[in-house]
User: Which sequence fits this backbone?
């Protein structure tokens, strides 16, 4: 499914439409996709300074309770969907090409993809979790697939 389809599914749901009537100050900030979890679409409110996420499981959309927003000061920037030119499969293909080129020994066990705004640009923040307990993190512009940053680290480094 494409990013816009996930958003449309949420924004056409009863759960979203009933909620947004009483919460018009919220705006879209991210789409979170993980291979073994429901897809989430997140909305942020400057006034409330929290995020409300909606889960998509097959054809069912449900709303989660507001959560504290994790940010480095300020507010979370709106995800400008009109600037997202790269679809989900294009981002996955580019990240897989980069993995094969730079880390061919790594076998991916799971992936997390967050489409969000980083430094005022819509960005795919892709984390590949490998069978060797490594993370490969790729930040890619959602406008043109330019790699902004990529790095590999060990899960074992998280303890340090």
Assistant:
């Amino acid at each position: 499914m494409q990013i816009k389809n996930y958003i449309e599914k949420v924004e056409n749901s009863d759960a979203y439409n009933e909620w947004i009537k009483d919460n018009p100050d919220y705006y879209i900030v991210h789409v979170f996709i993980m291979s073994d979890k429901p897809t989430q679409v997140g909305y942020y409110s400057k006034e409330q300074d929290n995020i409300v996420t909606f889960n998509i499981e097959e054809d069912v959309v449900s709303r989660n309770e507001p959560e504290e927003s994790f940010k480095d000061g300020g507010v979370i920037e709106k995800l400008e969907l009109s600037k997202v030119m790269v679809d989900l499969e294009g981002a996955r293909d580019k990240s897989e090409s980069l993995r094969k080129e730079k880390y061919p020994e790594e076998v991916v066990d799971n992936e997390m993809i967050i489409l969000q705004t980083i430094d005022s640009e819509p960005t795919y923040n892709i984390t590949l979790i490998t069978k060797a307990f490594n993370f490969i993190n790729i930040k890619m512009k959602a406008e043109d697939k330019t790699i902004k940053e990529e790095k590999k680290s060990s899960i074992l480094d998280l303890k340090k």
The mean pLDDT is 93. The longest helix spans residues 88-102. Residues 83-159 form a domain with the Nuclear Transport Factor 2; Chain: A, fold (CATH 3.10.450.40).
